[in-house]
Structures are given as structure tokens and as C-alpha cells.
């Protein structure tokens, strides 16, 4: 049996579906019972509860041959790093309490860097926390920016006529489809063949600049020639606060943009067939925009 945290999310849904298709028994966890119902219908055992509750998590992890963990992202959090620390400690306590022997942890490119990377620094902290466990085989998956993070800008781009963010326009950035992240995680959870601590970066078929990604998005939303604009940091942070981010999360988003722009966040290793995934942004951008609208 495999326990999947974040099972109703972008990556977790893919993992759950692929594990079920592979004939694995899956315990799917998330907070929203209605969202979990679709996974129950597909054959998963579903548990609704909050990851901040280490006892709930430990019960959900107990008996699992392997677990998938993630640090859920809440852009309204007033103190993001403290919140992530609380969730991260609950996960580590649950892995320990349940005696889990194998963990696939969703992390990110840039998690090797301790500070100055915005949201990603919390994933660095979580990798360190998990590494302190003994007797647990750990696989850290470090994907690039999700294509879904680009398509999330579709509505704003329609309103403003441009796509604005904090990343330099011409810097190639590793980007990937969450379906490919889910496929990589599910394959590892089925194979359960790694030992000790392993780090696997996950790249899409090619890096994209924000200018290139914006052009692909524009073509999909009937705005051909859509331009990308890098806003000054303070202006970008204010725009995010207006859009509902907490001030802390807005500052972290901007810091992450700076770190992607100046090479602080960068792949550690050369691409290999194992780290490159097949899905091109052009191939799925239309579906992602439609899914989001639905
Ligand atoms: N976005 C990117 O470009 C990017 C790039 C690299 C890595 N990442 C990593 O990927 C993670 C996001 O993965 P994703 O896109 O699959 O997430 P997602 O779509 O936002 O889904 C989050 C999942 O976690 C569950 N969840 C949220 N808060 C929870 C809580 N307190 N307790 C229990 N379950 C909770 C959600 O369900 P409920 O809300 O029902 O609980 C949902 O199943 C990020 O946090 C980051 O660490 C992201």
C-alpha cells in the first residue's frame, strides 16, 4: 500500500491515478472530502485530514510500503516559512512514528540552496529535515517550474494585455508538466528500487524563457503576440498582494523570480534521459487553460 499526500492536487492526482492503473493499493489524503470522492470512485482508499496534524498523518502513513510527501503551498500564509516548517515537522514526525521506510518527497529545482530563493528555501529546509531520519530511503524529486504556473496567468493576461512576472525575460528556465512529475513519482513508488538518499531533477523537453512561454500561452488564449513584461520587484509584489497573496508570500515570489533570473536557482546536473520528460508546453497549454477555466 502506498500513501499519497496531496492526492487531489495537480501532481498527487496524477500519481494516484497512475498507481491505481499499475494495480497498487493507494491511500489518498487531502483535506477536502468532496475532492477525494473522485479518487475513491477510481479505487483509492481516501482519508480526509490536515497535514499539520502529525497523529493523523502517522495513522495515514502506517502500513505503507512507501509514501509521497509534499509541502502544500498557501500564498495567503502570513508567515510562509514558519507555516512550512510546522507542516514539514509534522511530516517528519509522521514518517518516524509510522515506521515508513521509503519516501518520495516532492521538492524543487533550487532546493540545494538554503536561502535567497523565495518559496524554495522551505523545500531546502524540508530536505534537510528528512535527511536527518535514519533507516529511510529518500528520493527527492526536484522539478522545474510547472507549466500550470504559467497558465495561471491567463486571466490576468487577458485583462492587462500582457503577462507580467518577476523573472528576467530572456533567461532559460527549466519548466515541466505536472503530469510528467506525477509520472516520475508514480514510477519510483512502483519500482521502490532506490536506496539511501537520492536526488532526481526533473526537466521538461527544453528550458523556456518567460518570453517564449508567454508567446505559447498567448497563442492558446487568442492573444497572438502576447508580450511578457518583467515588473520591478516592488511593483510585482504590490500586484500580488492586490491579487490576494499575503505580503510575505508576495516578497517570496519576487525573491524566487530574482533567483531564477540571476542563476541562483539552476539545475545541478546535466540532463539525462532519466531527468527529461516528454510533454511540451505547446502540446497541453490549451487543455491546461480549459481545465483552469472549468
Ligand atoms: N508550482 C510550481 O511551479 C512548483 C515547482 C516545483 C515544485 N513545486 C512544489 O509542488 C508543490 C505543489 O504541488 P501541486 O501543484 O500538486 O499542489 P496543489 O495542486 O496545490 O495541491 C495541493 C494538495 O495538497 C492538499 N493540501 C493542501 N494543504 C493541505 C494540508 N494542510 N493538509 C493536507 N493536505 C493539504 C490539497 O488538498 P486539500 O486542499 O483538499 O487539502 C491538494 O491535494 C508546491 O508546494 C511545491 O512544493 C511547485
UniProtKB/TrEMBL annotation:
Protein name: NAD(P)H-binding protein
Pfam families: NAD_binding_10
Domain NAD(P)-binding: start-end pairs: 6-189
Parts of the chain that traverse the membrane: none
Signal sequence residues: none
Domain of life: Bacteria
Amino acid at each position: 500500500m502506498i500513501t499519497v499526500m496531496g492526492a487531489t492536487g495537480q501532481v498527487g492526482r496524477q500519481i494516484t491515478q497512475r498507481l491505481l492503473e499499475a494495480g497498487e493499493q493507494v491511500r489518498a489524503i487531502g483535506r477536502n472530502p468532496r475532492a477525494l470522492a473522485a479518487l475513491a470512485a477510481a479505487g483509492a482508499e481516501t482519508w480526509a485530514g490536515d497535514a499539520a496534524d502529525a497523529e493523523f498523518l502517522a495513522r495515514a502513513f502506517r502500513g505503507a510500503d512507501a509514501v509521497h510527501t509534499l509541502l502544500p503551498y498557501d500564498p495567503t500564509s502570513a508567515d510562509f516559512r514558519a507555516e512550512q516548517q510546522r507542516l514539514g515537522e509534522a511530516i517528519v514526525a509522521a514518517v518516524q512514528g509510522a515506521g515508513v521506510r521509503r519516501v518520495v518527497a516532492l521538492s524543487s529545482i533550487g532546493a540545494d540552496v538554503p536561502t535567497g530563493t523565495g518559496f524554495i528555501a522551505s523545500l531546502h529546509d524540508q530536505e534537510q529535515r528528512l535527511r536527518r531520519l535514519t533507516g529511510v530511503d529518500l528520493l527527492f524529486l526536484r522539478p522545474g517550474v510547472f507549466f500550470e504556473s504559467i497558465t495561471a496567468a491567463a486571466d490576468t493576461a487577458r485583462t492587462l494585455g500582457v503577462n507580467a512576472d518577476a523573472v528576467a525575460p530572456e533567461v532559460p528556465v527549466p519548466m515541466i508538466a505536472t503530469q510528467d512529475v506525477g509520472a516520475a513519482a508514480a514510477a519510483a513508488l512502483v519500482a521502490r528500487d532506490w536506496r539511501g538518499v537520492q536526488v532526481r531533477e526533473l526537466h521538461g523537453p527544453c528550458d523556456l524563457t518567460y518570453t517564449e512561454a508567454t508567446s505559447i500561452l498567448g497563442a492558446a488564449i487568442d492573444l497572438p503576440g502576447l508580450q511578457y513584461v518583467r515588473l520591478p520587484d516592488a511593483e510585482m509584489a504590490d500586484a500580488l498582494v492586490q491579487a490576494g497573496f499575503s505580503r510575505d508570500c508576495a516578497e517570496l515570489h519576487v525573491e524566487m523570480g530574482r533567483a531564477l533570473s540571476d542563476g541562483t536557482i539552476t539545475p545541478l546536473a546535466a540532463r539525462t534521459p532519466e531527468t527529461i520528460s516528454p510533454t511540451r508546453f505547446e502540446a497541453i497549454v490549451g487543455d491546461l487553460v480549459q481545465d483552469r477555466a472549468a
